TrEMBL record:
A Gene Ontology term for the protein's cellular component: membrane
Protein's UniProt name: Sterol desaturase family protein
Pfam families linked: FA_hydroxylase
Subcellular location(s) per record: Membrane
Source organism: Aureibaculum algae
Transmembrane segments: 6-22, 34-55, 91-115
Length: 176
């Protein structure tokens, strides 16, 4: 519970650097049209997949696993309660998803503020301990079936909502 509250605090305040950079004209915004809002949510969700995979792989290096990421892996069987159970440093790294890309790509601010909703829904899917589809990843590929295996085995399936990067980098384990 303590780690979850710390993470929620970190994620909640992660918008402050974005607001600051908008005010000093380092981040450009697009108009809040329906298309731009949807585009922002889709692009941020895809970017999150890459960002999360990189951060998650780093967290599994021995130094970070022993000092930081072990907090999240205390949940051997993922539940919706483990969604925010991170060490504060890991939460800080994960909270930079919109900040990093917004320095290079303009988005609708409404889309940026709606993105966390898509992210949390996908995160709940990955931690709800339910195997979507047939449970082998042959259907419902964008949901967290493979993340259950990550929590139980801990050595593969590093992706967020998709197993595409796990398959590309040959670190995907199918459920048996």
């Amino acid at each position: 519970m303590k780690h979850s509250l710390q993470s929620i605090f970190v994620f909640g305040f992660s918008v402050l650097p974005i607001i600051y950079l908008i005010r000093i004209d380092k981040i450009t915004l697009l108009p809040d049209t329906f298309f731009n809002v949807i585009l922002a949510v889709v692009v941020l969700t895809l970017w999150n997949e890459v960002h999360f995979f990189i951060v998650h792989r780093i967290m599994h290096l021995p130094f970070f696993m022993k000092r930081v990421h072990f907090v999240h892996h205390q949940s051997r069987i993922p539940t919706v309660w483990s969604v925010y159970s991170f060490h504060w440093f890991e939460a800080l790294l994960l909270s930079t998803v919109p900040l990093i890309i917004m320095l290079f790509v303009p988005f609708s601010i409404v889309g940026v503020f709606l993105y966390p909703l898509a992210s949390i829904l996908l995160n709940y899917a990955g931690h709800c301990n339910y195997r979507f589809g047939d449970g082998y990843g042959n259907s419902w590929r964008l949901f967290g079936t493979h993340h259950n295996e990550h929590h139980s085995k801990g050595r593969a399936n590093y992706g967020f909502a998709s197993n595409a990067l796990d398959k590309f980098y040959n670190c995907y384990i199918k459920r048996h």
